[in-house]
Amino acid sequence: MIKVAFYDAKAYDRPSFEHYGALHDMQFRFLETKLNEDTAEFARGCDAVCVFVNDNVNREVIDRLYELGVKLIALRSAGYNNVDVRAAFGKIHVVHVPAYSPYAVAEHAIALLLTSVRRIHKAYNRTREFNFSLNGLTGFDLHGKTAGVIGTGRIGRIFIDICRGFGMNVIAYDSFPAKDSGIEYVSLDELFERSDVISLHCPLTDGTRHMINAEAIGKMKKGVVILNTSRGGLIDAEALLEGIKARKIGAACLDVYEEEADIFFEDRSGHILNDDLLSRLISMPNVIVTSHQAFLTEEALNNIAETTVRNIVSCFENDGVCDNELCYRCGNIERCKKERKEKCF
Ligand code: NAI
Questions:
Q1: Which residue out of 292, 310, 325, 329 is catalytically annotated?
Q2: What is the CA(340)–ligand 1 centre distance, in A?
Q3: CA–CA separation, 243 vs 54, rounded Å?
Q4: Ranges under pLDDT 70 in the chain
Q5: CA 188 to ligand 1 centroid distance, Å
Q6: Hey, what's the torsion of the CAs at 117, 121, 126, 129, to 10 degrees?
Q7: pLDDT value at residue 233
Q8: Domain boundaries, the chain
Q9: Whole-angstrom Cα distance, residue 264 to residue 248?
Q10: Which pTM does this prediction carry?
């Protein structure tokens, strides 16, 4: 039996993981706490840990897990910026779920966009109080507007298709443009200058952190709508707030926030929020915040559980090779053994 310590467990995680785990004689220890230096100990006796986006899998945590005999870190997410894959190399294998439903995330980005530009969130609150006034609800047509998409991978490409369905013009920036895709790639500066709507779909790396900062916002059109369903750290939230206060930014829709780790996914109503910046952003009439919800569809949860369980099984069975293994050398044909269909180390 493979034993897995499942950190940051939520009620919606359990049914699908229990279902797929039972098919493979896998036992989950569901823990509500997040993984960090203090909670690594809870994995004692387990072969693997299963973690999500706000578990902090830094070098110290990895060393502690290694001492405890944990052999695998199984991310149940696509992004892995919260795991120090360099520190894990040679000690603990790391796997992730590269795609579970890119539609879920792209559709959520569109839901935020439509809600914002047609003021649906305001209309919903008004009609519940029998306020049928339309004052202040004037939106704008998406048709004919320009969407600037940063990151044209799985999610970005679906977002582009939906935008085209609305009759929007689409321009994009990607450090690795997709060949023969029919996508009009432009420089980042040109994207900032031409876009009415900017949507972020690239990973968070040292190179992309705060790519939306005061300088970038300075180049944007007045009234631009910024969507972030990728990672909070892509945006300098202080600069975003300044851009909103200066009436430069028309609206911001945020499913992610740089300092979300101790806030999102929990019921904080009735508590004083110790994050003035987030409080201020939420108080703005043209800001919509959802708490890292873009992935949350039935289809995505099912795919996440199925792939995570398959990843774990493949790491412990036969030769231990798993297509979804990650290391800091991945993508480097010369250095990563995975390119030769072997384990990363
Ligand atoms: P992907 O790997 O298919 O695509 C990422 C794209 O970004 C690639 O085309 C890549 O070339 C591009 N890219 C890399 N570095 C770049 C840079 N410096 N500038 C511009 N483009 C760059 O990833 P996928 O599946 O489309 O996911 C995108 C992001 O969405 C993930 O990194 C993750 O952070 C986020 N995400 C958020 C979820 C949520 O619930 N809010 C759920 C799933 C993913």
A1: 292
A2: 25
A3: 27
A4: none
A5: 16
A6: 170
A7: 97
A8: 2-100+298-339, 102-289
A9: 27
A10: 0.91
